[in-house]
Amino acid sequence: MSPEPLRRVLEATGYLSDGDPAPGVSLGEVARRRRRGRAFQPDASWRGPSALTVYFKYDAVIPSDDMIAIWRREIWNEGFSPLLWVISPERIDLYNGFGRPMESGDAAEHRLRWFQTIDSALNDLDSLA
Fold first, then answer.
1. Domain of residue 50, CATH code
2. Which one is predicted more confidently, 1 or 31?
3. CA-CA distance, 128 to 8, in Å (whole number)?
4. How many Cα atoms sit within 13 Å of 92 on the Cβ side?
5. Which of 3, 35, 86, 111 is the most buried (most CB within 10 A)?
6. What is the CA angle 77-78-84, rounded to 5?
7. CB distance 97 to 84 below 8 Å
8. What domain count does the chain have?
């Protein structure tokens, strides 16, 4: 099963309902296999009917900006992922997956919004998502 913070976020935003994935949602190994061996390994993904994909990545600590830049570059190269959700126990960061990668400052420049992983923030995230 997914780490607790990831599960809470997915439940709060409707990607999971009573532990069951919503249509188009892949979890764990299934989500990772869909990337076909690339370095970025999502912990969950949602793929819509038009092939647009939202990736969810959990990390026990907030990842470095350099790591996020690497993940974003891979997602950008796919051309199908408008959003990357980076989830840690402390917060959730939403990144623009369509924003052209830059030489430096990539993570901060392409961060759309961040939320604390508390119930009121999860409600705000659900409203946005």
1. 3.90.1570.30
2. 31
3. 16
4. 28
5. 86
6. 90
7. yes
8. 1
Question: Which tokens go with 73?
Answer: 């570059």
Angle at 35 between CA 33 and CA 40, to 5 degrees: 110
At position 1, the amino acid (one-letter code) is M
Q: Tokens for 13, please give them.
A: 């935003």
CA-CA distance, 44 to 41, in Å (whole number)? Answer: 9
User: pTM of the prediction?
Assistant: 0.86
Give 26-90 as a DSSP string: EEHHHHHHTTTT-S---SEEEE-TTS-EEEEEE-SSPPPHHHHHHHHHHHHHHS--SEEEEE-SS
Q: Which domain holds residue 95?
A: 4-128
- Evaluate whether 75 touches 29 at the Cβ level (below 8 Å): no
Number of other CB atoms surrounding residue 52 within 10 Å? 15
Residues 73/103, Cβ–Cβ less than 8 Å: no
